Amino acid sequence: MIVELIVLLASIFVFLQFVKGRGGESNSPTLEEAEQKLAKKELEKEKLVKKSTSAQKPTGKSLKKLNQASKKLDHKEFEHGLLTNTLKGHTKCVNDISFSENGKFIATSDGERSILLWPTKELGKGNTSYRYNTAHDPALSVKFAPDGKSLCAILQKENTVALFQVAKQDGGSYELKHISNAVDFLPGAALKRAKIAVQFQSGVQAGSFLYHEYSNHTVVLSDLRGNQELHRFPAASGSNGKTLLSPCSKFVVGFGDSAEIRGWAVLFKSGSYASTKKLHSLCGHKSNVSQAAFFPDSSKLISLSDASGFKIYDFNSADWQRDDTPREAEAFPNQWGAVDSILISPDNLILALVQHSSIKFISLRTKVLVLEIKDIFNGAIKSVEFSPDSELVAVAGDRCVRIFKNLPGLIARAHEAKSKLMNPNCNETYRNRLLAELKSDQKQINELQKQLLSS
Ligand SMILES: *[C@@H]1O[C@H](CO)[C@@H](O)[C@H](O)[C@H]1NC(C)=O
Ligand SMILES: *[C@@H]1O[C@H](CO)[C@@H](O)[C@H](O)[C@H]1NC(C)=O
Ligand SMILES: *[C@@H]1O[C@H](CO)[C@@H](O)[C@H](O)[C@H]1NC(C)=O
Ligand SMILES: *[C@@H]1O[C@H](CO)[C@@H](O)[C@H](O)[C@H]1NC(C)=O
Predict the structure, then answer these.
(1) Spans of the WD repeats (predicted)?
(2) Alpha helices for 29-163 (secondary structure H)
(3) Whose CA is nearest to atom 6 of ligand 1?
(4) Which atom number of ligand 4 is nearest to the Cα of residue 427?
(5) Fold classified for 85-398
(6) Averaged pLDDT, groups of 10, the chain, 455 residues long
(7) Domain(s) of CATH 2.130.10.10: residues in the chain
(8) Vertex 227, ends 221 and 228: CA angle to 5°?
(9) Nearest bound ligand to CA 285?
(10) 257 CA distance to ligand 3 centroid (A)?
(11) pTM for the full predicted model
């Protein structure tokens, strides 16, 4: 908490300096300098923690005390100044979470029997979820379709993708209406991930399919109902293999078993599935690629390996579908330790690193750790998603979902606005809009800072 506050206070200080003395910045530290200082502080603290933990080898007695203390912690409700809501109602560990793209709903699924639908307007107003009972079939994942009105979930026992529609009832309540189940295309392998995939061309729907990933990393593409197979291919292999479908639904990547990131393009012609084309691999890494994530606008892919750190590939630099290889736009070392998963906020400003039950928020512009939220759950984090407007970050684990204000994103946005204001070509209208946004962001940052201080 202390580190968080130092980071925040410093960011806010620098930020206020800027707003106060717009332009006359010569004697105040630049944001970069402040952030570098903060990163150094963070490093020193890490060293300190390492020292103190290695100095105190727990004896039998202190171990007992430690266990007692952690038991007490189990019963204490998690608290954090940025926590806005805790979604409760699941009876077993929450496996997955999904925001609808219009921001109106959150869907969550658990390992026992429930898929819950939460209208975001009603969050924090008591009984605010609508339950679909899966008849004791664990729901491994849940994902909204781009229309925000339909969603798909994986039912583990049936090894199938179940399709639902959000139906509005008289009286304003909602229902998750089960439409149908897809075929189990690979009965010998467990279904791991599924998505309702829609491709757009200049804003018009150009193609759609259902994406299935099985435990041996075979990807099956089918029609939207999940009755008819369009294509299947092995996208990765080995126990560390992973596959991803891009948010634009045009690309599939497979990685984890080598230094190579393999790619495929799913091609449609006149609204009908045409083919799946193997693309040139992304070959910049020097050891097995352990993580990768698409930017939410599908403009880039960020990837991580032990030997090469983070690398960002830019899809705007080349037409990957037409046999060009995307350029490596950026590379930076991983200074933050081993990670379980990574994701990028929809505004492309924040890189979130999930490490067991904690999340680190890195500014993508400066590559500096802005905030860490620690020990969110007793168990590991199962799923993390930013809201489509990047204002919130929702984290699933244990038996609930915790929703936090994305303060790192707010700070990053303020920095972004500042650098835009510095641009001499910035016209008056745009400048005034930016300043208004800065002012309102500053107000929010101040309020959140107060909450952090009092928590
Ligand atoms: C709470 O939600 C459940 C599920 O939708 C519903 O059956 C129940 O009547 C609601 N209770 C109240 C007090 O609104
Ligand atoms: C994946 O599992 C299915 C079902 O057992 C099998 O037919 C297929 O060959 C496997 N694919 C790979 C790449 O191992
Ligand atoms: C890289 O992946 C391959 C295939 O899964 C595996 O055999 C190998 O041990 C991995 N190498 C490292 C350094 O983890
Ligand atoms: C002002 O700048 C913004 C952002 O660069 C641009 O979108 C807008 O068209 C400009 N307006 C005028 C009047 O030049």
Answers:
(1) 87-118
(2) 31-55, 60-75
(3) 130
(4) 1
(5) Methylamine Dehydrogenase; Chain H (2.130.10)
(6) 47 46 36 50 50 44 53 67 92 94 94 92 82 91 95 96 94 92 96 96 94 96 97 94 96 96 96 96 96 96 97 92 92 97 97 97 95 95 96 95 96 93 90 94 92 81
(7) 85-398
(8) 55
(9) 3
(10) 6
(11) 0.83
